[in-house]
Amino acid sequence: MGDRAITPVRVQNVTIGEGTPKIIVPITGRTPGELHTQVEALTGVDVDLVEWRTDFYDTITDTASVVAQARDLAGQLAGIPLLATCRTRHEGGEADLTDEAYADLNVAVAESGAVDLVDVEYRRDRIAVDRIVGAAHARKVAVVASNHDFAGTPAKDEIVARLVAMQDLGADICKIAVMPHDAADVLTLLDATRTMHEEFADRPIVTMAMGGLGVVSRLAGQVFGSAATFGMVGTASAPGQVGAADLKVALTLLDRALATG
Ligand SMILES: O=C1C[C@@](O)(C(=O)O)C[C@@H](O)[C@@H]1O
């Protein structure tokens, strides 16, 4: 079966959903100073996008300071697209926000003019999700719907169903991270990725199995249909992230091999 047409997502000069998977580097500083240092450390590293994990930020509940920080980061990044992600406790992050506060924060960030993409945990209250998606799209900010399973790996059909649900609610990119307990779980994630990509997706998807067992899934997206992968510079934001420079070597190796046939 041939691949369905995938509509790529273009942010600044980066096209997600075309060519080799894009490398996203998370930054997790708690203060403006820590974030500044983390961005400085990206100099000379092959980074396609930066993810600001706003949930680590000390003043996350002060929306104006988050928006101001997003603008500072955009200036410092000078053209590297910025994804803003507030990962909540439900999904393995630091933020503990009501649905309304979660929506208010992400709407403000999406409307700041500083970010290119915003992450939305698709299982949050539907009104909150719809508010963020609407505000983002009104500003031409791409929506990355997400789901994390830190306890285990759902069945293949369930992984595909979650990705389809994200697509149905209007996400531009659909992302899922699962925790494997054995090699079969990693295969389940990869098989779900392939099926989603080949049979259901009309937009980019991003998938990963976390932890050491899952590292292969962070390298092999181009084979199975995952359009981006998270790699660290300094500090990981989830278990199993490898260094961005090593990731680039692995992605390039695979890309060359695939081009050779
Ligand atoms: O959704 C994801 C994926 C991730 O959890 C990972 O496993 O690499 C890392 C998070 O920072 C990001 O928001």
UniProtKB/TrEMBL annotation:
The keyword Glycoprotein does not apply. Pfam families: DHquinase_I (PF01487). It comes from the Bacteria. Its EC number is 4.2.1.10. It catalyses: 3-dehydroquinate = 3-dehydroshikimate + H2O. The keyword NAD does not apply. The active site is at residues 148, 175. Gene3D superfamilies: Aldolase class I. Pathway: Metabolic intermediate biosynthesis; chorismate biosynthesis; chorismate from D-erythrose 4-phosphate and phosphoenolpyruvate: step 3/7. 3-dehydroquinate binds at residues 51-53, 87, 218, 237, 241. Keywords: Amino-acid biosynthesis, Aromatic amino acid biosynthesis, Lyase, Schiff base. SUPFAM superfamilies: Aldolase (SSF51569). It is an enzyme of class 4 (lyase). GO terms for molecular function: 3-dehydroquinate dehydratase activity. Involved in the third step of the chorismate pathway, which leads to the biosynthesis of aromatic amino acids. Catalyzes the cis-dehydration of 3-dehydroquinate (DHQ) and introduces the first double bond of the aromatic ring to yield 3-dehydroshikimate. NCBIfam families: aroD (TIGR01093). PANTHER family: 3-DEHYDROQUINATE DEHYDRATASE. Belongs to the type-I 3-dehydroquinase family. Homodimer. This is 3-dehydroquinate dehydratase. It comes from Rhodococcus zopfii. The lineage of its organism: Bacteria, Bacillati, Actinomycetota, Actinomycetes, Mycobacteriales. The gene is aroD.
